[in-house]
């Protein structure tokens, strides 16, 4: 019976740690860049776009498609960085748990 109570205590402790890590991840601000820094996209830890910075040299009628592609590329860069940071933070939380390789947590 003590084992079950101890396990329940550890589960509650882990829940509290997970909530803290999720708050930290949500508060992240990630910058993605493309075009050698001509376009910057800023995302929060949830992947929501918070801002876009575009170098004025890209505001030419014949370069609209290039600008659009650079914005998409910068967003992808920021999203990948954010996912890597979130995974890194979660790895510390799940260290020692017998999870199968490649399993993402939380599910």
Secondary-structure blueprint:
Blueprint: H1 2-27, E1 29-34, E2 39-44, E3 49-54, H2 64-94
Antiparallel strand pairs: 1-2, 2-3
Mean pLDDT: 83
The dominant shape is rod-shaped
Structural class: alpha+beta
- Strand order, main sheet: write it out: 1-2-3
Number of strands: 3
Question: Helix coverage percent of residues?
Answer: 40-55%
Report on the architecture of this protein.
This protein is of the alpha+beta class. The protein has helices at about 1-25, 65-95, and strands at about 30-35, 40-45, 50-55. A hairpin with a 4-residue loop joins strand 1 and strand 2. The longest helix is centred in the C-terminal third of the chain and has 31 residues, at about 65-95. It is rod-shaped. The mean pLDDT is about 85.
Offer a concise description of the structure:
This protein has 107 residues and is an alpha+beta fold. It is built from two helices and three strands; from the N terminus they run H-E-E-E-H.
Sum up the structure in keywords.
single chain, 107 residues, alpha+beta, 53% helix, 17% strand
């Amino acid at each position: 019976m003590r084992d079950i109570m101890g396990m329940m205590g550890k589960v509650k402790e882990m829940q509290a740690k997970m909530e803290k890590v999720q708050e930290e991840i949500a508060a992240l601000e990630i910058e993605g860049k493309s075009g050698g820094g001509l376009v910057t996209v800023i995302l929060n830890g949830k992947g929501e776009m918070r801002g876009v910075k575009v170098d004025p040299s890209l505001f030419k009628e014949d370069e609209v498609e290039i600008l659009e592609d650079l914005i998409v590329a910068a967003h992808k860069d920021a999203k990948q960085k954010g996912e890597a940071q979130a995974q890194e933070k979660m790895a510390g939380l799940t260290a020692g748990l017998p999870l199968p390789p490649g399993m993402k947590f939380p599910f």
